[in-house]
Amino acid sequence: MANNFSKWKDPNTGNWTATCNWCKKNYSLGISGGYGSATRHLKSKHPVEYAKLGGGTGKQTQISRFANNQQAFGNLSYNDAQNLTGMANLLVEKNLSYLFSESLAFRDYAHTSLNPQYRGYSRKTVKKEISRLYGAEKVRLQNYFANFDGRVTVCSDIWEDTYHNLHYLGLTVHYIDND
């Protein structure tokens, strides 16, 4: 997308805007910097350039065409579910917004530097994955401590993220087991 659009922040609204490098039309990217409208523009007005990005005709490509293409990917194996889980873990660990996964800069980076087949995830998809991971980790910890033969102390700590004006309650668990 970076070769097809110039991205800039509108000083009047504070929103990100993309200008098509082919026809010079402007598209609002909103606060998040997502490029859905810009992608739709490229697909409808500049189909050749869209196809170069891997957009094609909208028909689903057979997975076997990618899975058997060792020349293009070498020993790299791409697992979409594993990639989604990695994205969710990144957002949680670095305390990033769900919108990060839709940002133009990240998608361009992932597409051009990491994997040309990367298509990204919507914030709703990432949010569902984070909820799923939370549920799985919660069950894992409950099962672990239900059968735990040792001693446990739980300490709480309240802290504030002044930059984002958020307040947190942190829990720290110390335990002694038989090992």
Automatic annotation (TrEMBL):
List the InterPro entries hit by this protein, alphabetically.
Znf_BED, ZnF_BED_domain_contain
- According to the record, the signal peptide region is none
Recorded protein name is BED-type domain-containing protein
Q: Does the record's keyword annotation contain Zinc?
A: yes
Q: Which domain of life is it from?
A: Eukaryota
- What are the BED-type domain coordinates in residue numbering? 18-47
UniProt keyword annotation of Repeat present: no
Where is the protein found, in the record's own terms?
Answer: Nucleus
Q: Which GO terms describe its molecular function?
A: DNA binding; zinc ion binding
Listed under GO cellular component are:
nucleus
Arranged from A to Z, the UniProt key words for this protein are: Metal-binding, Nucleus, Transcription, Transcription regulation, Zinc, Zinc-finger
